[in-house]
Design brief:
Layout: H1 2-23, H2 30-49, H3 53-64, E1 68-69, H4 72-84, E2 91-94, E3 100-105, H5 106-109, H6 122-129, E4 138-145, H7 152-172, E5 180-184, H8 197-203, E6 205-213
Parallel strand pairs: 4-5
Antiparallel strand pairs: 1-6, 2-3, 3-6, 4-6
Helix pairs in contact: 1-2, 2-3, 4-6
Length: 215
């Protein structure tokens, strides 16, 4: 009985931590909320694996990553994308939850009020698509953005159409459409000042995410 009580303690502690995390989620962003919930679920999983605090801590670490891993293939993909985008103004980064993120500005992606892919974007998408057939556990998310010029009635569908154009191009290069999620955020998530032309150009963009789940 003593042994059973000892094993229960990490699980109870992990459950308490999870409840605290869930209670605090109200004021978090979507990304923070997902990471927090993942950490709590992971902690419970780790506690269930054994009666040590170490198991719970390992589980929490895995859960906090949202189920994504940073494999050698992901590292190689990041290096390939950095090489393909060198000097273009595209930012290639690894996110906190192990996603590969490309921030692609308008000067190489789309003209004002257009969802037609510019020629300079095509080789970047070609490189992005290359090899994904050999990474079946990867997921792709594309988010379109606009500047604040025009109304929501124009900007919201335009942002979706920009993401859809990138998706359609990837599909034409052999990537399964079922693996690609698209979103449009309109002008609601600016990264620069919309009162300047340079700022508006930065805000007209697409963001592409590649994530790999553990097998």
């Amino acid at each position: 009985m003593t042994h059973l009580k000892f094993r229960a303690r990490p699980a109870l502690a992990a459950l308490s931590a999870t409840l605290v995390l869930l209670t605090g989620c109200a004021n978090m962003t979507d990304a923070q909320r997902s990471s927090a919930i993942g950490a709590g679920v992971g902690a419970l999983t780790g506690a269930a694996l054994g009666d040590s605090t170490k198991s719970a801590a390992i589980g929490a670490g895995v859960g906090a990553l949202g189920g994504y891993i940073w494999s050698n293939q992901m590292a190689q993909k990041k290096a390939a994308m950095e090489q393909a985008t060198a000097g273009t103004g595209v930012d290639v980064t690894q996110t906190a939850d192990n996603q590969l993120k490309l921030n692609i500005p308008s000067d190489i992606s789309f003209d004002v009020n257009s969802a037609v892919i510019k020629p300079n974007l095509r080789p970047i998408l070609d490189q992005f698509a290359q090899g994904l057939a050999n990474q079946p556990n990867t997921e792709i998310r594309i988010i379109g953005h606009t500047d604040s010029s025009g109304s929501d009635a124009i900007n919201n569908p335009l942002s979706v159409n920009r993401a859809a154009s990138a998706r359609n191009y990837l599909v034409s290069r052999g990537v399964s459409a079922q693996r690609i999620q698209i979103e449009g955020r309109g002008s609601y998530e600016p990264i620069a000042d919309n009162y300047t032309e340079a700022g508006r150009a930065k805000n007209r963009r697409i963001e592409m995410f590649l994530a790999e789940r553990a097998r």
